[in-house]
Each structure stands twice: as C-alpha cells, then as structure tokens.
Amino acid sequence: MKKKYSQMTEQELWDEIRELHEKSNKAQQLGNASDFAIQEQRRIMAEAYLLNPDDFMAGQRYSLKQEANTFFVKYYNGVFAWGFRERSDKLEAVPISLLDKVKPTSL
After folding, report:
1. What was the pLDDT predicted at 106?
2. Within the chain, where are the H helices?
3. Exposed (0-12), middle (13-18) or buried (19+): which is 33, by Cβ within 10 Å?
4. Hey, which residues does 93 pair with through a beta bridge?
5. What pLDDT, on the 0 to 100 scale, is given for residue 101?
6. Number of domains observed in the structure of the chain
7. Contact status, residue 33 vs residue 76, Cβ threshold 8 Å
8. How far is residue 98's CA from residue 85's CA, in Å, rounded to a whole number?
9. Burial level of 57, CB count in 10 A (0-12/13-18/19+)?
10. C-alpha triplet 42, 47, 49: angle, nearest 5°
11. Is 61 part of any domain?
12. Please, what are the averages of pLDDT over each run of 10 residues along the chain (107 residues)?
C-alpha cells in the first residue's frame, strides 16, 4: 500500500509525479480520457505537497493554471486554497498547485 502524499519525502513525491505523468501520457495515447483525467488529478495533488502554503496569501486573486478563470482565496487549509472562482459565489477548494500569478484585486 502506498503512503499518503503528506507522508512522502520530496524525492518520493517527485518519483510519484514522474510515474503519474507517464501513466497519463499512456492513457492519452490509448484514448482513455477518464484514466487520463484521474492520473492528472493525482499529479496535481502530488505537486501541491511540494509547495509551501505559506508562499500564498489569503485575500488575493490568483490565476488558475490551465484555465482562463481567476480564483479569490479566502483561506487555506493544508494544501488547499478555499475561495471563489471568478463570477461565482460558491465556496470551493482547489489544490495550491493550481494557483498561478497573483492578480490585483478589488475584493
């Protein structure tokens, strides 16, 4: 049984990310969209554990990687940023590995 990401060393996380990247490439080549999506989500989560949540600030708006939307961060809980997508009032969580550059905010 594999360790939880929170229990892995940095090297173990990098190895996991590499393995997940290979699996997602294989799934994509085989045309298996659901397996591809699963492997990509796992990779994004593993990448979140390589980042320091203290490097991100609550009350800021960030770009979301691979999306045109921005995300306003209300607070953090572990490797998850809780907040609101652009033009939404629904509170949701995203892994900090999806947060990109800070956008100036008026909120």
Report:
1. 54
2. 10-29, 33-48
3. exposed
4. 82
5. 80
6. 2
7. no
8. 12
9. exposed
10. 105
11. yes
12. 91 97 96 96 97 93 91 96 95 96 63
